[in-house]
Design brief:
Elements (H helix, E strand, L loop, with lengths): L2 H19 L4 H17 L1 H17 L4 H7 L3 H16 L7 E6 L5 E8 L2 E6 L4 H12 L3 E5 L5 H17 L7 E3 L5 H8 L7 E5 L2 H10 L12 E5 L5 H13 L8 E7 L3 H13 L4 E4 L1 H7 L6 E4 L13 E7 L2 H11 L4 E5 L3 H10 L4 E4 L19 E2 L7 E2 L6 E8 L7
Parallel strand pairs: 3-4, 3-6, 4-5, 7-8, 7-12, 8-11, 9-10, 9-11, 12-13
Antiparallel strand pairs: 1-2, 2-16, 14-15
């Protein structure tokens, strides 16, 4: 069987399993989540061992620190994955939810009812935790999934899929609902993107190249996003003492993820104080800086910091590392223009005690998540009480921001009459 035939067979099996899954009870699907959480904890040692194989091969292949961090599974991270599963199990079941209930002028009783999207095709790089996130949210919402992970995480993904399918079987659910394309050939991804008769939505999780590849090659609707060029604007009305730890959290807490801070914009009136304090603070965390000329001049006298003049592309770069851009702006209007020109539409915020200005910023900046006096690190399904997420969408059709349970459903109209005929 060729790669194309094998992928098509898996997509067909997922489609058939999805028909069974959508008729399952909420209790069965929650039992799967809780069983999977327990199994992950019980098999932590085996998961870490498989992950170590991937990490060793990745290091030998020259993967950078950001990629290796995304790839790494530790007992703490595995326990966090299990806890997320338990939180998802506690969330209300979106399926069969009725909304927009009303009686129409023609006498029909109408409502909308939530239903699964169908079959999700998920293509992802590096992060093996995506395997569990997708399994959790797909099964909870009655969706089947065809997963295509990256070659750098092949051993980790294999063991995680095995554990997930065992939990499906133990819960009386069809194991075919979770399919894993166990091939590192590029042809396998291309084959998945062509299954428009069997797969309903493609969700890429990875870098800009992967997203562009999926948009270019797919016959199936693609959710785009996950590329974060994130900004915080520090206004002249900000409390600078309180602003500094927020900026540090946004940059340093986990720099390799898409909601980490990439650029700080500083109002010119506060720049002589804020820029040196910010650079000195973050230099202790080994942060490097890419500064415009004014910011560079304010920090060049500081000892022991790594500064460089911002290059032509630096303010359009998602750093995914301990690098931070700093630019001085005349006012909030200039900051908003900079964000509109350079943001990827992921997460952007303002630090200011001027409520009217903050509201103008929140209304004008058209990103998936906009913040007032907060770190950008909260753009996350778990932090937004979604339990987990399959992706962060930066587009506007169907879903935007972290995609949790509701975002993995569609709806159908249900119309009830009394043997009604249209006049």
């Amino acid at each position: 069987m060729s790669v194309i035939e094998a992928v098509r067979a898996q997509a067909a099996a997922a489609r058939a399993a999805g028909r069974v899954l959508r008729r399952s009870s909420s209790e069965q699907r929650n039992a799967f989540l809780n069983r999977l959480a327990g199994d992950l904890r019980e098999q932590t040692e085996a998961i870490v061992a498989a992950n170590r194989t991937d990490l060793d091969q990745g290091a030998a292949a020259g993967l950078d620190g950001a990629m290796l961090d995304r790839l790494r599974l530790t007992p703490t991270r595995i326990d966090g994955m299990a806890s997320d599963l338990e939180r998802v199990a506690e969330l209300a079941d979106p399926l069969s939810q009725r909304f927009d209930v009303r009686t129409l002028r023609n006498g029909l009783r109408a409502h909308k009812r939530r239903v699964p999207l169908g079959v999700l095709g998920v293509i992802y790089e590096s992060r093996p935790n995506v395997t569990i996130d997708v399994a959790a949210l797909a099964i909870k919402t009655g969706n089947a999934a065809v997963l295509r992970g990256g070659k750098e995480a092949i051993a980790s993904n294999r063991i995680l899929l095995r554990i997930a399918r065992d939990a499906l079987q133990s819960s009386g659910l069809p194991v075919e609902a979770l399919q894993f394309i166990d091939s590192i050939e590029r042809e396998a991804s291309l084959a998945l993107l062509q299954q428009d008769e069997l797969v309903d939505l493609i969700i890429p999780r990875g870098g800009a190249g992967l997203h562009a590849f999926c948009r270019r090659e797919s016959r199936i609707p693609v959710i785009t996003g996950g590329i974060g060029i994130c900004h915080l604007y520090v206004d002249q009305a900000a409390n600078l003492t309180r602003a500094l730890p927020v900026i540090r959290n946004a940059k340093v807490q986990r720099p390799t993820v898409c909601n980490a801070l990439d650029t700080v914009l500083v109002h010119r009136k506060i720049a002589p104080r804020l820029v040196p304090e910010l650079v000195q603070l973050l230099a202790k965390d080994q942060v490097e800086f890419r500064c415009d000329d004014e910011a560079l001049a304010l920090a060049t006298h500081l000892p022991g910091v790594r500064l460089a003049r911002a290059g032509e592309e630096d303010f359009d770069t998602e750093w995914l590392s301990l690098v931070l851009g700093i630019a001085i702006v005349d006012d909030a209007e200039a900051a908003m223009r900079h964000i509109e020109a350079h943001s990827s539409g992921h997460s952007d915020g303002i630090l200011s005690d001027d409520a009217a200005l903050a509201e103008e910023f929140l209304a004008r900046i058209d990103s998936a998540a906009v913040y007032w006096n907060s770190s950008t690190r909260f753009t996350d399904g778990g932090e937004l009480d979604l339990g987990a997420e399959v992706a962060v969408s930066t587009q506007k059709l169907h879903a935007r921001g972290p995609m949790g349970l509701t975002e993995l459903t569609s709806y159908k109209w249900v119309l009830e009459g009394d043997y009604s005929s249209r006049a």
